[in-house]
Write a structure and sequence with these properties.
This protein is mainly alpha-helical and 222 residues long. It has twelve helices and no strands. The N and C termini lie far apart (119 Å).
Length: 222
């Protein structure tokens, strides 16, 4: 065999070996988890449609997302919101509960579950969920504000005052604190604490000199 033939044969063998190596590498590459990819696609579509107010289409996509990945907090949570937007409260309740099981430390999920309980007329469970939301995130002013109102509605005045007072202490940016002081004043009046009420309304006016409610309360009780 001539030297030239030997060289050509060697090159062919090398190329063949390289081809086999490439084939092995490609064939042995791990496959993408199809279910996870599908879940993310349905979840993304559902989230987009929900944000646009297309709740029925969002509901269908989010159901598929949950079916593909039953352990997805976000899929269950958004599905709950879609059900709630469509007035299907029992289904929404089940999904909110599932979402809080999957992520027990999500304050927003507990907050929305509380609002749903209140919508269904269950104040006791609503308060329990709000308290849990605040335990997770103590500076959750929105939850404290709603909890204060629920306490006031149930006649638990001191607890309502405690929540409103905490909001004042936190001084949240953009919140109407004059209105909070007005509410505190009314709660003190209910408890027969006139001077404390007057102080609250005066504080409301110091924050907002044009606050008509504070003016009216002072005119009535001073």
């Amino acid at each position: 065999m001539s030297r030239r033939i030997i060289i050509i044969t060697a090159i062919i063998l090398i190329l063949a070996a390289g081809g086999l190596a490439v084939w092995y590498f490609v064939s042995s590459e791990p496959k993408k988890p199809e279910k996870k990819v599908a879940e993310k696609t349905f979840l993304k579509k559902g989230e987009e449609r929900f944000s646009k107010g297309d709740f029925k289409s969002a509901l269908n996509d989010l159901k598929k997302a949950v079916s593909e990945d039953p352990e997805s907090f976000k899929a269950h949570y958004l599905l709950a919101r879609a059900y709630q937007a469509l007035g299907q409260l029992d289904s929404a309740l089940a999904e909110y509960k599932r979402s809080t099981q999957l992520d027990p430390n999500n304050a927003e999920a507990h907050f929305n579950l509380a609002l749903l309980y209140k919508e269904k007329g269950d104040s006791k469970e609503a308060i329990a969920e709000l308290e849990e939301s605040i335990r997770i995130f103590p500076n959750f002013v929105g939850a404290r504000n709603v909890l204060a109102k629920y306490y006031a509605d149930l006649g638990e005045t001191d607890k309502a005052i405690a929540e409103y007072s905490k909001i004042v202490e936190l001084k949240p940016f953009g919140m109407d604190l004059a209105s909070v002081h007005n509410e505190l004043g009314l709660l003190h009046i209910k408890e027969g604490r006139k001077q404390e009420a007057i102080k609250e309304w005066q504080t409301a006016l110091s924050i907002d000199p044009n606050n008509q409610k504070a003016k009216d309360f002072l005119s009535q009780y001073k």
